[in-house]
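Risk register update: the risk of archive-format incompatibility is retired. Evidence:
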Amino acid sequence: MQIDAVKIPGLMKFKKMVHGTSPRFCITEDKKKEELNLNPKSDSRHRNNLRKKFLLSLGTLEREPIFLNQVHGDQIFCIDEMDLSLTGEVLMGDALISNVPNINIAVFTADCLPVIMYDPHLNIVGVIHAGRKGTSLKIVSKTLQRMIQKYGSVPKNIMLGFGPGIGGCCYEVGDECLESFRDSYLQVERFTFPKKKGKSMLDLKLANRLDALGAGILDKNIFDCQICTVCSNNLFFSYRKMDAGRMMTVAMLLP
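Archived output:
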């Protein structure tokens, strides 16, 4: 099976961490195009098999990843604090961090922003589901703070990557959706752009970049795959386009 995963420029050079985001389609063994919907809400044998094939295409272990029942909040889990058999059925949150090799950790998205955070000095990795609500709660800087407290990470050593997500070009929201950002960001106008009465364009990537910079991550260490899931809906699932499918963004540490 051919699966062309999206990898984030700037993170690919680190040989002790494997990562990638699944595309919308794959090519089967008999050369047919098949939708690669990895939605964790489906536990069908075929869906599980597709997830394993995607993991194998990245060179990770084919065991099922540890993931979350994502709730658009700011709850962060360290997987070394729990039984590694736990899955998204029991973990309610939006970020995972780990220093355990050979364990896949994953988030699922279809417009929300998948974020990978990596400390190459201490070999610690995190995956984050940063939607509108999580971004307004500054889940990126909170995940970094957890890495600092738990493992002793230093912000200037952290590498941050943005996977495929809705761009500021396509994310129109009602102005009432911006109130939570005004509570947590000093310069909301830097990543929101008025469009028409009661509506604005929201740039989630820029908001998360500003959150990361404010927490001490260096600008030169922030990387973006530069893919908007709405603009590239033929290649990626988009909730705004009424797609039921989900992409999986996964990271795994190597020994």
